[in-house]
Amino acid sequence: MSKNKGKDGEMRVLKLLADVAVTDDKGEVLRLTGTNTPDRGGDLILESVGQTFLDLATTASPEQRAVIQTVIKPQEKMSARIDVKTTNSKITSDIVDDFAHNVKKNPNDKGQVLMGGKDLTGPAKKKFSEYQKLFVPSGKALLYISNEGLERLEGRYAVNPNLINNDNEK
Amino acid sequence: MSLNLSLIEFQNSNDGRLYEENYQIIETADLGNDLREDFRQQGLLKEVDLYEDENSCDFTKIEVVDDNRVLQLLESLEQKFRRLFLVGRNSAESDIVVPKEVDAQMAEFRKITNLHYLVKLKAQQFDGLNNCILKLG
Q: Which of B23, B53, B107 sits opposite A94 (nearest CB)?
């Protein structure tokens, strides 16, 4: 672990997304430069297909899949902005407001993911759900993934590096 | 990781607690984890409880700028701002225009000035108002 917990958290998610990309064989992961993106609320971008995004939602937070399904088609190519919050506390409403505000600053990303925290607080959960519905007409799928959801994803997508090495030797 | 500093006014309550259900974000600026660590080491930050609503005992610990250290934070930002101009002043490289570096320097400049504006706003317009806080998140 480095002294920079924020960076460590981002790297953890980067590793997960790399495993997702290897597993589904369709994804690419982009880490945005530090100079102009944090104030747009974007840390990482996952380029993949709709099915991957739906699978992430199903594993991390099945209760959100229904609303996401209304805007995401399984076969379509899409990108998702991932905003990582490295904290063990709950995510509060003002952070959700800021995340939603940044959706418009990232118009090319159909998926918009807020990741991290123990959970959303009660008011933040209500607010996030409202934003999810609000952005449906503009074709944006908002997804919240807690630290617990992140762990579930890590369990689901963990890639054995030996398998990759064996493939390379062929 | 995106990390902001926000000037937020929470609803005034008689019991002195902060409640999440009624608030207004006055201004937000990008902070980043490196600056947070720096401010933590200088003892400028503290934790306070944010309650979900008046009928609930549920609360979350949030990290905020200590109201008594706002001026110190302002000074720290001003020092960082001055340092931006010192770097490369005596270097031949400073005459070479490298677009990528200019972009990074401008981003750093904007980050410091945005934060300075935000903290100054708190110091000048909301000094001593305990329900108006500089919150990290």
A: B23
